[in-house]
Write a structure and sequence with these properties.
Strands 1-3-4-6-5 form a 5-stranded mixed β-barrel. It is globular, with a radius of gyration of 18 Å. 3% of the residues lie in helices and 44% in strands. About 8% of the residues have low confidence. By secondary structure, the chain is mainly beta. A hairpin with an 8-residue loop joins strand 7 and strand 8. The chain has one domain: Nucleic acid-binding proteins (OB fold (Dihydrolipoamide Acetyltransferase, E2P), Beta Barrel), CATH 2.40.50.
Length: 143
C-alpha cells in the first residue's frame, strides 16, 4: 500500500516486546483534495529501523508498506480499530520550498537517511486490472 500523508505527531522510538527490535512510530493523516467535506484517514506508521527518520510534525511524506488493522476493546466495551502501516519505505517530499527531502527505509540499514528533493508524480499512469486476475469469489460471503 502507498499513502501520501502529513506527519501528525513526532516520531517516537519503541521496542518490540518479543524480540527487542527497535522501531519508530508516528501518526499520519491522509486527505483527498478533490473530495468535499471528506475527513482525513489516520494511520499509525511503524518504521522498523534504528536511526531516527528525522521527520517533524507537518512534513509531507510518501509511505509504502503493509496495511494492518489492530483491533481492541474500548473502555466502554465497544470494539475499536486502528489502521497501522508496517512501513517498508518512507520518503519526505518537498512541498514546493527549497528544503531537502529525507529518504528513510524500514530495512534497518546502517547507512541512515539520505537527502534528495523529489515531488510526487501528478500524472501517474493508471493500469486497468486484468480480468483474469480479479478474484470476486469473496463477494458471495458478504451478499
Amino acid at each position: 500500500m502507498q499513502a501520501f500523508a502529513n506527519v501528525a505527531t513526532q516520531p517516537v522510538q519503541r521496542t518490540t516486546q518479543a524480540g527487542g527490535r527497535v522501531y519508530w512510530e508516528f501518526r499520519a493523516a491522509e486527505s483527498a483534495r478533490n473530495e468535499e467535506k471528506a475527513s482525513a484517514t489516520w494511520y499509525t506508521v511503524r518504521v522498523f529501523q534504528e536511526e531516527d527518520p528525522g521527520f517533524i510534525k507537518g512534513d509531507f511524506v510518501r509511505i509504502v508498506g503493509k496495511l494492518k488493522l489492530d483491533t481492541f476493546m474500548s473502555r466502554e466495551g465497544k470494539p475499536m480499530g486502528v489502521l497501522v502501516l508496517m512501513c517498508y519505505e518512507v520518503k519526505k517530499y518537498d512541498k514546493g520550498g527549497a528544503s531537502p527531502a529525507t529518504n528513510s527505509s524500514g530495512t534497518g540499514s546502517a547507512k541512515g537517511p539520505t537527502s534528495s528533493i523529489e515531488k510526487p508524480d501528478t500524472e501517474a499512469s493508471v493500469r486497468e486490472p486484468i480480468e483474469a486476475s480479479v478474484d470476486d469469489s469473496w463477494l458471495s460471503l458478504v451478499a
